[in-house]
Write a structure and sequence with these properties.
Blueprint: H1 6-20, H2 25-91, H3 119-124, H4 128-134, H5 143-150
Main location: membrane
Keywords: Cell inner membrane, Cell membrane, Membrane, Protein transport, Translocation, Transmembrane, Transmembrane helix, Transport
InterPro entries: TatA/B/E, TatB
Length: 159
């Protein structure tokens, strides 16, 4: 960069004061300051854009590497799954009758049967006084009927 010391700035200010004059010097200084600020902002924007494009390229490279790693993992999983299927089919090739060897439904593994209970009958057998004390709802209402039942009554007053 340009090496500007205090002596050089004083020399530039003295020349500007003589050339431009004391009346126009503040206006010219403001204009030069504004132009320098715009130039600095432009340079900063260009730097930011270059950094963004470099980051974008790095992210694309990273995305490609992650996708290739995912494809490798997927292919290895599929390969091991096919190997497992092959060994499973070889291991179970001799077994044809599962029920004859003690499968589901044989004496070793009985089939689950749901108990014959009617829970509604048990609820109905509960006495009414117990339901009232326990807070069991015996009569159901729709939502609209419940809102209408508990809505505060309008009070009519004469004026």
């Amino acid at each position: 960069m340009i090496d500007l010391g205090i002596s050089k700035l004083a020399l530039i200010g003295a020349v500007a004061l003589i050339v431009i004059g004391p009346e126009k010097l503040p206006r010219v200084a403001r204009t030069v300051g504004a132009l320098l600020g715009k130039a600095q902002r432009y340079v900063a924007d260009v730097k930011a854009e270059v950094n963004r494009s470099m980051d974008l390229e790095e992210l694309k490279k990273m995305k490609d590497s992650v996708e290739s790693a995912a494809r490798d993992v997927q292919s290895s999983v599929q390969e091991s799954a096919s190997d497992f299927e092959k060994t499973w089919s070889e291991a179970t090739a001799g077994i044809t009758d599962y029920d004859a060897m003690g499968g589901i439904g044989s004496d070793l593994h009985p089939v689950y049967k749901r108990p014959k209970k009617n829970w509604r009958i048990k609820q109905k057998a509960m006495p009414q006084w117990f339901k009232a004390r326990a807070g069991v709802r015996t009569r159901t209402q729709s939502g609209a009927a419940r809102v209408a039942r508990f809505r505060p009554r309008p009070s009519f007053s004469k004026r």
